[in-house]
């Protein structure tokens, strides 16, 4: 006969203590597995939470940068102060998970660190507005406010998203000034076309994510081109403050994948 179930004062069955359980020769091995999995899930939760917060701060930096009126100039004091504050918050968030992303873990949790693409987008947009040039991988790594190593994937996919911010910046500033912003040598239309040509020469990656990024990039370039053509052809007819339709009205046929 087996012994009865032990219960507490509320009638709930008591969990057996470790001393009550029989230990086999594999018991210690599975306890190690348990501890390793617990560490993995705890680490993953910390990374996901920090990634979510870094993404939010990076987006706020981008929103702040969209208030800039003219590229290739120093930012107004208020805008620069807001950017520095948010970069400081990002530094604290990334520093808190630096130990969790050492060695192979940097790639093991890479999908959970998509926030780095958003950070690269913010840093590249800031660099473009300040210098009207494309930030390099080395410059981006130096600007990351923590001891986190960027991969080529983080860098390239962050630059893909830069096209959308350049398109929005061109649209807003054109509505405010009546011209495509830039210096006497080139404007934002020439910049986004030149950058787009460089990306078109990249080796094709057979993934859905890459194809989607390329298509969105082409749509952003097309919108800025239509904006420039509209200024040249019918610029004098545009009322002050006119903003072009931002919906995707590109009716060009899409080549089969």
| Topology-level CATH name | Methane Monooxygenase Hydroxylase, Chain G, domain 1
Main sheet record = none
Number-wise, the strands total 0
Secondary-structure-based class equals mainly alpha
Provide the low-confidence segments as ranges.
Answer: 253-257
Q: How do the helices and strands follow one another from N- to C-terminus?
A: HHHHHHHH
* Arithmetic mean of pLDDT: 84
CATH architecture: Up-down Bundle
Helical coverage, percent range: 55-70%
Tell me the name of the CATH class: Mainly Alpha
Distance between the termini: 69 Å
Percentage of β-strand residues: under 5%
Shape field:
elongated
Count of DSSP H/I helices: 8
Gyration radius, to the nearest Å? 26 Å
- How many individual domains? 1
Q: Could you explain the architecture of this structure?
A:
It is found in: Cytoplasm; Nucleus. Helices cover 59% and strands 0% of the residues. The chain is an all-alpha fold and 257 residues long. It has one domain (29-236): Up-down Bundle (Methane Monooxygenase Hydroxylase, Chain G, domain 1). Helix 1 packs parallel to helix 4 (115-131) and helix 7 (188-200) runs antiparallel to helix 8 (208-234). It is elongated. The protein starts with 26 loop residues before the first helix and ends in a 23-residue tail after the last helix. Residues 253-257 have low confidence and may be disordered.
């Amino acid at each position: 006969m087996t012994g009865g179930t032990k219960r507490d004062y509320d009638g709930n069955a008591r969990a057996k203590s470790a001393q009550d359980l029989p230990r086999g020769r594999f018991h210690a091995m599975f306890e190690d597995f348990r501890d390793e999995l617990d560490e993995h899930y705890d680490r993953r939760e910390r990374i996901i939470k920090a990634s979510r917060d870094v993404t939010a701060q990076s987006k706020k930096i981008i929103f702040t940068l969209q208030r800039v009126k003219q590229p290739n100039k120093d930012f107004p004091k208020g805008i620069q102060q807001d950017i520095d504050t948010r970069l400081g918050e990002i530094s604290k968030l990334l520093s808190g998970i630096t130990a969790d992303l050492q060695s192979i873990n940097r790639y093991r949790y890479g999908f959970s660190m998509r926030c780095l693409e958003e950070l690269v987008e913010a840093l590249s947009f800031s660099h473009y507005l300040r210098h009207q040039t494309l930030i390099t991988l080395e410059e981006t790594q130096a600007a990351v406010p923590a001891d986190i190593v960027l991969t080529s994937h983080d860098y390239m996919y962050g630059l893909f998203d830069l096209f959308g911010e350049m398109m929005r910046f061109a649209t807003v500033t054109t509505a405010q000034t009546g011209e495509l912003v830039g210096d006497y040598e080139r404007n934002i239309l020439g910049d986004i076309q030149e950058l787009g040509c460089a990306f078109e020469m990249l080796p094709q990656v057979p993934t859905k994510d890459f194809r989607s990024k390329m298509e969105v990039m082409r749509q952003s370039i097309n919108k800025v081109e239509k904006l420039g053509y509209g200024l040249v052809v019918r610029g004098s007819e545009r009322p002050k403050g006119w903003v072009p339709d931002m919906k995707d009205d590109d009716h060009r046929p899409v080549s089969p994948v």
